Amino acid sequence: MTIRRIALALAAPVGAFAFSVALSSLVLLAVGTSPMEAWLEMLSYGSRLETLVETGNRATQLYLAGIAVAIGFRMNLFNIGVEGQYGLAAILAASAGAAVDLPPVLHVALIMVVAMAVGATFAGVAGYLKVSRGVHEVISTIMLNAVALGLVGFFLRTWLLDETDTTLNMKTPEIPPSGRFPNLNGVVETFTREISRGRELWGFLLVAIVVGVLFHLFLSRTRAGYDLRATGLNPFAAEAAGVDPRATVVKAMLLSGAVAGLIGLPEILGHAHSYDLAFTRGLGFAGIAVALVGRTHPLGVGIAALLFGWLDSAAPILDVVGDTPREIVSILQGVVVLSAVVAFEVVSRIRRAAEARDAAEATRSSATTSGSPS
Amino acid sequence: MKGLLRSSMVFRWMVAALGLVVVLSIIQELARPETTDLISAGTAESTLRRAVPILLAGLGGIWAERAGVVNIGLEGMMVLGTWFGAWGALEFGPWWGMAIGMAGGAGGGLIHAVATVSFGVDHIISGVAVNIMAPALTRFLSREFFVNRSGGGLTQSPRVESVGELNVPFVSGGDLFGWTTPDLFGWIDDRNWLLVSDAAALLSGITRSVSWATVVALALVPLSVFLLWRTPIGLRIRASGEHPVGADSLGVNVYRMKFLAVMVSGGLAGFGGAFIAIEQTGIYRENQVQGRGFIGLATVIFGNWQPAGAFLGSLLFGFADALQLRDRTAVHALLLLVGVALAALAVRAVVQRRTRPAVLLAVASAGVLWWYAVTEEVVSELPPITPHVATLLVLVFATSRLRMPAGNGLRYRRGQE
């Protein structure tokens, strides 16, 4: 029984990934390039230490984005606005960090608090509109993304611009060393060779892991987490049992936004030390993909983040060698998302049918034993 | 059709349109000489052109949601429409481009239908997945088909030709059998008669250099009403969206209806995308859809799942879009309009004795009017997000009086309640 459950749980993501690789290979064959060659190139480049460090960094950001989205998904709340929330949080937190001077740990803590507060506030607007005006969060968060983008552009051009900077790159003032996050190169290098090419494994990876653990504990060990899951599984039953659906919506949105606020920090605290035009965008949407493939499970999202992070980090090699377009990796990711959600649906249907069969069998056997004269 | 033909309805619309002209004229007079674009033939023409893709997305949303399938994937289907539209226009000419763009969007609709209807995946999740996949696919296709052409590249196509334009004879100087008819509306517009000239300018704008594709798109509004409300198949589609179990018990093949409706939905979105590429910009460019699919979805909601309502909504966004593109100072004048509109809503709230909304609206109105008074022009980041802010505001004020199809967004499995 348990083996069958585990096998079923693994069948969906593994099957979806295999299907996606097969489909992408067919696409490559159709345009006349060799899929085998491309995958092997990616594997050999992708197993280098520097690429793995890149993978870790990318996965850190994707994981935070995935968890932010997953918090909402757990109660059928679709926070499509993670994209806007993390951009706005990043620029305001970076500016706040540059404006103050604090002892090392406190400084980083302040930046994180500001980022989480901004993310939560902006997501909270959508939550408030949903419970007070009945505006569906999908539409409102999408519109708020555009608003956030406008605000970030406005801030970067006016109030938060680093006036002393002479380069053409528009950026916010630099965060002093006390507000930066150390890298993990030393830890990694005790096991491996030296990391070359100036790559650093961002220390924020540890924060992402803590967020994952907290998310797990929140869902499984707290009243609020229980309310949230219950509302997601059956809103009517949850309400009948005394869960306030409005409060749960707002709480989930605030929490989702708070985690979303952290997405940009690995990069800002670990590498850029300011918000500039090179800041990575698009992680909010990628986070939706990661959350879906990871099935909103703390561990599953982690695996999905590593997978997507690795694909993103290994893909650039395709530009350098061979004649495979690197966009095939984006197609692969897109197909993984869609086939994974379909596979999860199919598997859960098989599981439900099996459970119904088992239950029917159990009732029948108990009925025959109790019904027979003793 | 019913709604459109009812005489009281037509009358109300005409009064509303007239009221709009009057208000716009007054605001225009107040805002002169800052801008002359608030009500002009150019703005009217641009509004219509900008409204069409949003209208098509909105109609697409209505088709899907009337069948009970929420289609967040409209955005991705429009993206497919832009690419396939441009490619088709390059290969076979603009009309073929429209058709191929439509087919591309319908392909996206097919994927969405398979996921949601056949496999019962959550509609929003499936739609999001379509939105993630579409840009990846178009980028890949651009690399394969556009990079090697002159003017083409990884993110854009070579320039494409547009379909022809229509000038309505007698009122806007169109040709009739080789004879150039008089331009009546244009003539009145030039006289600068208060109100009359403004109304003529509006009419001139929507009857002059109208793309034939716009004509087709506009015809799809009554056509959708007719197909969905006046034909057996439309009844079956709507029944599948309201009460699929009941429909099934009456012998309707619910799965087939949902597939059909979602593919039509994708096709309309694809047409909208192709329109952007072929008619608006004359080129395929990555990211040129810019959330219009989502805005189209918003028009579905506050158009109360009615094609005519979605049409009105698309005009509103088309207007916001046209103003910000044509003349950025006009957006500043728009603040005046928004301020006055909020004040009117506040007065209405006072009359209805709703104190809290009245205070809120009055404060908001004062704030916007103050903003208008103390600034010369709005910050450059505001105009591009005007349509999105407008969507939010309209939804905030409108959602309470709407009714969506009863079975919308719900999973349906045949033989299961």
Order of helices and strands of chain B: HHHHHHEEEHHEHHHHHHHHH
Low-confidence stretches of chain A: none
CATH class of chain A: Mainly Alpha
Counting DSSP E segments of at least 2 residues, the number of strands of chain B comes to 4
From the N-terminal CA to the C-terminal CA of chain B, the straight-line distance is: 33 Å
Element order of chain A: H for helix, E for strand: HHHHHHHHHHHHHHHH
Integer-rounded radius of gyration of chain B: 22 Å
What CATH architecture of chain A would you give?
Orthogonal Bundle
The best one-word shape of chain A is: globular
Q: Overall pLDDT of chain A, averaged?
A: 88
Strand content of chain A: under 5%
Biggest beta sheet summary of chain B: 2 strands, antiparallel
Q: What separation lies between the terminal Cα atoms of chain A?
A: 32 Å
Determine the mean pLDDT of chain B: 84
Widest beta sheet: strand line-up of chain B: 1-4
CATH topology of chain A: ABC transporter involved in vitamin B12 uptake, BtuC
> Uncertain runs of chain B with pLDDT below 50, 5 residues or more?
1-5
Q: What does this protein structure show overall?
A:
- The complex is a heterodimer of chains A (374) and B (417).
- Chain A has 374 residues and is mostly helical.
- Chain A has a single domain (34-324), classed as ABC transporter involved in vitamin B12 uptake, BtuC (Orthogonal Bundle).
- Chain A has helices at residues 2-30, 35-46, 49-73, 82-99, 104-133, 137-157, 185-189, 204-221, 223-233, 235-240, 245-262, 265-272, 283-293, 298-314, 317-320, 327-371.
- In chain A, helix 3 (49-73) crosses helix 14 (298-314) and helix 4 crosses helix 11.
- The model of chain A has no long low-confidence stretch (mean pLDDT 88).
- Chain B is mainly alpha-helical and 417 residues long.
- Chain B has a domain at 51-159 and 220-326.
- Chain B contains 17 helices and 4 strands.
- Chain B has helices spanning 2-5, 7-31, 41-66, 74-92, 94-118, 123-145, 184-191, 196-207, 212-230, 232-242, 244-249, 254-281, 292-302, 307-326, 328-351, 355-374, 382-398, and strands spanning 165-166, 175-176, 179-180, 210-211.
- Chain B has a two-stranded antiparallel ribbon. Chain B has a two-stranded antiparallel ribbon with strand order 2-3.
- In chain B, helix 5 (94-118) packs antiparallel against helix 12 (254-281) and helix 14 (307-326) packs antiparallel against helix 17.
- The longest helix of chain B is centred in the middle third of the chain and has 28 residues, at 254-281.
- Chain B is globular, with a radius of gyration of 22 Å.
- The A-B interface holds A 27, 31, 76, 78, 80, 129, 133-136, 138-140, 142-144, 146-147, 149-151, 153-154, 157-158, 285, 288-289, 292, 325, 327-328, 330-331, 333-335, 337-338, 341-342, 345-346, 349 and B 72, 111, 115, 119-122, 124-126, 128-137, 139-140, 143-144, 291, 294, 297-298, 301, 379, 381-382, 384-385, 388-389, 391-392, 395-396, 399-400.
